Amino acid sequence: MNSRHCASLTIQLCQSSSSNVRQTPSEIFVEMGQQSKIHCSHKIQDYNRILWYKQLKGSRQLQFLGYMNVNDGYPEKGRFQATKPDAVSGTLTVGKLEPGDSGVYFCAVSVHSETN
């Protein structure tokens, strides 16, 4: 008899009170070991950087997960991958989900300017 033991992982996303920044989907239920994708888009002209955060469990503190400028992703070391196909959208992929990945995730947008 083959039995399969599964556990699900819940990822909740923060929805901005502004209609200018949007994260989707609003909730994700995924089996541990799978990957999850969180999308962020915005309507703010000239903003070309997307930043990703996760709220630490039982705290208001945010863990920085990485950012994306224009078309380049700079995720923190680990199982995170950040992609940005254009100036107004991006995706955070969390690979091989673990129980500690469950939580509330946020995206934020800002202006990135080149400095010499």
Characterization of this structure:
Pfam families: V-set. One of its GO terms (biological process) is immune system process. The chain has one domain: Immunoglobulin-like, CATH 2.60.40. The chain is globular, with a radius of gyration of 15 Å. With 116 residues, the protein is mainly β. It contains no helices and ten strands. A hairpin with a 2-residue loop joins strand 8 and strand 9. The protein has strands spanning 8-13, 21-24, 27-31, 36-42, 49-55, 62-69, 72-75, 80-86, 89-94, 103-110. It has a six-stranded mixed sheet, with no helix packed on it. A four-stranded antiparallel sheet has the order 2-4-9-8, with no helix packed on it. The chain is 0% helix and 53% strand.
Short note summarizing the structure:
The chain is mainly beta.
Q: What is the CATH architecture annotation?
A: Sandwich
Shape: globular
Largest beta sheet: strand ordering:
3-1-10-5-6-7
From N to C, what is the helix and strand string?
Answer: EEEEEEEEEE
The CATH homologous superfamily is called Immunoglobulins
Q: Sheet with the most strands?
A: 6 strands, mixed
Number of domains: 1
Radius of gyration, in angstroms, nearest whole number: 15 Å
Based on secondary structure, the structural category is mainly beta
Highest-level CATH class: Mainly Beta
Low-confidence stretches: 1-9
CATH topology: Immunoglobulin-like
Helix run count:
0
Give the terminus-to-terminus CA distance.
Answer: 65 Å
* SS elements, strand count: 10
Helix content: under 10%
State which percent range the strand residues make up.
over 45%
The overall average pLDDT, rounded, is 78
Keywords: Immunity, Signal
Pfam family, one: V-set
Protein name: Ig-like domain-containing protein
Domain Ig-like: 19-116
